[in-house]
Amino acid sequence: MNSFSDIIETIKKYDKIVILRHQNPDPDALGSQTGLATALRQAYPDKKILIGGKNAEGLKWLSTMDEVSDDDYNGALVISVDTANTPRVDDDRFNSGDFLIKIDHHPNDEPYGDQLFVDTDASSCSEIIADLIDSTEELSLTKSVAYYLYAGIVGDTGRFMYPATTEHTLNIAAKLVSLGINFSGINQSMNEITLAQAKLQGELFNRLDVDESGAALAIIDLDLMKKLGINQEKANSVVSTPGRLHEVTSWLEAVQKDDGTFRMHLRSQGPIINGLAKEHDGGGHPLASGANAKDLDEVNQMFKELIEIVKDFKSKGE
What we know:
Elements: H1 4-13, E1 16-20, H2 27-43, E2 48-51, H3 70-73, E3 77-81, E4 99-104, E5 115-118, H4 125-134, H5 143-157, H6 167-178, H7 183-191, H8 195-207, E6 209-210, E7 215-220, H9 222-228, H10 232-235, E8 250-256, E9 262-268, H11 274-278, E10 283-284, E11 288-293, H12 296-315
Parallel strand pairs: 1-2, 1-3, 3-4, 4-5, 7-8
Antiparallel strand pairs: 6-7, 8-9, 9-11, 10-11
Helix pairs in contact: 2-4, 2-5, 4-5, 5-6, 5-7
């Protein structure tokens, strides 16, 4: 594992830097990516610093991407943030630069890169980037940087409700707020949904299969998305909805993709579920993970496995 000083020294060596993050980005992916880029642009105005990946339509209020050419990778430093494994990096050219750094807070199942800094105790990758900036006089936490990092922290902590939130997380958030960002505007942007997404929440409650153990499953298929006029990205906005129910301890949300397979979102309020995700082409945090299912049979198999995980957790009185 490398130190912050190692990473800063590497950054100083390169005139071209490309910062990437995971596919289907959330606020933390965009916040850590753009927050780091903004800090580096402020400190090193002569360097060419680009952020790459596909734009997230629902998060354009937070950040939009640069056009990154093949030539931009030639001799460049590439930094991958908030991305646990290489298949999820949102640019297949990530390994075509001169040097690769991984900065992340997910379990380090794939320790890729020439340098890496992984802190699984951090609430978010944005929290790590804030610490990285604070660790050196080379970089500065400014109002512009704080905007992105605060959004990332708020996004990955569920507005400070998730167990990964620590005293350190709150202290960083307070420091970012003190720089004068419009934190209430950020919170409102994250809280805002479309009428179609609101209707989807209602449909989700109607479709939710809640086992007596406290495990739950919601399937959002292509027919429902077509009926409501939403895409897969907007369907992902309701992933936390089942957790509001008293009867639900852990849950799966299966969102069907255009090829008929399912993107599986796993969430939990106690039982560890990232092992289940790993068994189904996925992974992630102990209480928040993603996986894939090739068909409804695999979706239902995952639900059966989740039920057993929850039962075992409760039988131990955890």
